[in-house]
Design a protein that fits this description.
Layout lengths: L2 H12 L4 H10 L6 H24 L16 H5 L9 H34 L5 H13 L2 H14 L10 H27 L2 H8 L4 H29 L3 H5 L9 H9 L5 H28 L9 H7 L4
Helix pairs in contact: 3-13, 5-8, 5-10, 5-12, 6-8, 8-10, 8-14, 9-10, 10-13, 12-13
């Protein structure tokens, strides 16, 4: 075949591709990363974030409307003398109760979870497998089942009926389902750092208590801080367990207050208190992530960071 004939057939072959074929080829990008994955990611992010941004926007509305924009204002945060978050005693009490439960959950669940993670990671005897499964059980149990179970436990079973419902029961309920998150994160960190540091400390004459306090705990500190931040964020956003174990207005949390308000005629102050919760949740998670990055900055990048720690977890 001559060179002239080949040059004549080349444009003909190119014209065989229709517009749809070109668009499909650009989206699938067979010689590189598929572009449709990027499109799906952005669509999902828009679907998840845009409604939240709209709700946040109307928390700054200058009128009582939650659908029509009348101008920017901080009225529903502290400007309104009656219905703002700052001046409404119901919203302030709910915010204080949520913060109280979150802080108490962190102070109780974090040390218990760290101790349990250490025991499960170092335990290789009979019964270690079932114990690891029971540790993960609260993560897979439907929250409504756990809430009803705790309610029956604190109100029907005689050894625990003196607890009843209220703040104490809410704290115990939050701690019950939060411990597993601490265990998972700290165990992932334990498996990523291995036993070499403890063995080196023992070779240098350190007792188990000294190796734990001066070697292992500082290495676990990033995971401890990260797990505490996640526990706090999960606790202040919890609705089901807080609802079932509540006892009157004094134990109403922000999620419960938002739920009650949306069933009636909500004001933009409901959007405002929801915005405060979003900011607090994001700030706590971001703080935990930054602390983790700072403490693990000098480690090898091949470990994969926090996700690599979680990936090394064996249930």
């Amino acid at each position: 075949m001559s060179e002239a004939t080949a040059m004549q057939e080349t444009p003909a072959r190119r014209r065989q591709f229709s517009l749809w074929d070109r668009v499909k080829g650009w989206i699938t990008n067979p010689w590189g990363k598929p572009r449709f994955l990027v499109a799906i990611t952005w669509v999902y992010m828009a679907w998840a974030i845009v409604p939240v941004l709209i709700a946040i926007q109307f928390s700054f509305n200058d009128s009582r409307s939650r659908t029509v924009w009348h101008g920017f204002s901080t009225r529903w945060y502290w400007g309104d003398p009656v219905d703002s978050v700052w001046h409404d005693p119901g919203l302030r009490s709910a915010l204080e109760q949520s913060m109280k439960l979150g802080l108490a959950d962190v102070l109780i669940a974090t040390p218990i979870g760290v101790a349990l993670a250490l025991g499960l990671a170092r335990w290789r005897g009979r019964g270690s497998g079932p114990s690891n499964f029971l540790m993960l059980f609260p993560l897979v149990t439907p929250e409504i089942v756990m809430g009803v179970s705790l309610l029956l436990l604190f109100t029907q079973l005689s050894p625990f009926t003196h607890i009843g419902t209220g703040t104490t029961a809410q704290i115990l309920g939050h701690v019950t389902f939060s411990i597993s998150y601490v265990v998972v994160i700290v165990r992932g960190r334990l498996f990523s750092i291995g036993r070499e540091y403890e063995e080196a400390a023992a070779d240098l004459g350190a007792s188990p208590a000294v190796a734990l306090g001066r070697v292992l705990i500082p290495l676990l500190l990033p995971a401890v801080v990260a797990s505490a931040a996640i526990v706090f964020a999960i606790s202040i956003d919890d609705f089901v367990i807080s609802y079932y174990l509540s006892n009157g207005a004094s134990t109403t949390t922000v999620p419960m207050s938002i739920y009650s308000a949306t069933r009636a005629a909500p004001l933009p102050s409901t959007n405002a208190i929801a915005t405060v919760m979003v900011v607090v949740t994001l700030a706590s998670v971001l703080a935990g992530f930054l602390v983790y990055r700072v403490f693990t900055r000098g480690e090898a990048r091949g470990s994969g960071g926090a996700l690599g720690d979680f990936a090394t977890l064996d249930a």
